[in-house]
Description:
The protein is α/β, with parallel strands linked by helices.
Amino acid sequence: xxxxxxxxxxxxxxxxxxxxxxxxxxxxxxxxxxxxxxxxxxxxxxxxxxxxxxxxxxxxxxxxxxxxxxxxxxxxxxxxxxxxxxxxxxxxxxxxxxxxxxxxxxxxxxxxxxxxxxxxxxxxxxxxxxxxxxxxxxxxxx
Length: 142
């Protein structure tokens, strides 16, 4: 039933908890697992120095690298191989939905709350948006 699983992660503890569920499912069902991290590039207005923009992007890329290092640790515990996917963009939910559609995944496993670059009054807005705009089944982990 779940031969292709997508697990979006942002490095937050909640996303790692949801990753463990995806790894468990993948290990038990023999499913292919894709782990998606969106490098959230915020729209930049006028910046006087490209050096500043480059340093911000470098910091975000280092953060993504750390996320996948953590994913590697977790995946070893379940003896599961996964496909790492890094996509740059500034609207996380549509990126997750588009990737799920393009890869024709059977289920999206994600945390109810993550760590967006800007905190909003609505907690879990990415999971909320994915839930309400995807046609894929979802397993949302608290």
